[in-house]
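ingest -> validate -> predict -> emit
validate: passed (alphabet ok, no gaps, 319 aa)
predict: started
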Amino acid sequence: MTPTTRRLLLNLARILISAVLLVWVLSQAGLEQLAATARSADLRLYGLALVLAVAGILMRAARWHWLLRAVGARVSFGRAVYLYFVGAFFNTFLPTGFGGDVVRVLEIGPGATSQQAAGTALVDRLTGFIMLFVLALVALPFAYQLLPANLALLIAALAAAVLLGSVLLFEGRLIRRLTRWLPAALSPAGDAWIGRTYAVITACGARGVGGALLWSLIFNLSLIVESVLVSRALGLSVPAGIFFLFVPVAVAALLVPISIAGLGVREGLYVTLFGQVGVGAAEAVALSLALYSLDVAMGLVGGLIYLVAGLAGLRPKAR
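emit:
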């Protein structure tokens, strides 16, 4: 079986998984009740959430731009914004949640090497996760009583694993020592592409990572406010603190590439999580789809920008 055939079969399997999960979740929620929830939505609050979604792209672009500058890359903020919008398109419409990161690396253009783009893109993504789980740990003592004990422990364990792994990654010395036995092409301690990319990660330094964490704090707070706005638009009265716990779990789960853009997986997860705090299946599915629609909107804007740039010959060649 050729690699192309395997990729085709894998994508078809993901489409099938998404379709099966969506059908099952929608059947549990009830289409009539789901439609009634959507019809009663407050479009003004949804519009505010849409504005925050646009601001979120700008915040994340600023975070990545900060990291690129920290490692000596010369990429303009406007270029970072463009690539983040384009990345939103590929993240939304590809089977995984990180296809846009690959596009950002491939199309970084003049001013940065592929290693600088890849290393800073990884730190960019990781600092977002770090701050998301820090917020979850801060909120957990105040909201754990609303959750089953095993779910609260899972959130705490995920947060601890992300924080510990990040410290080891950024510190660098232990990982290099443990991977010296690997072939040079695969070792973070080597001087091949992976080694040079890992050198970029550790070169971000305390100032670079600290600034990225600050941007991540601002962005993740806006992401949680965005979720609260959408929930209020749908008439849900879920305590705001719950989103500090559930959003990290949902974001982490969607990185597992078993469906197309997380469809079906996200909806089932929302039914399970928000069901713990008394939200009905129809309302949970409506919340999930409404939040996903914000991602779709940003992805469509990114796709349009990418198309126009291509037609106008403004896209630099991949390096």
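The radius of gyration is 20 Å.
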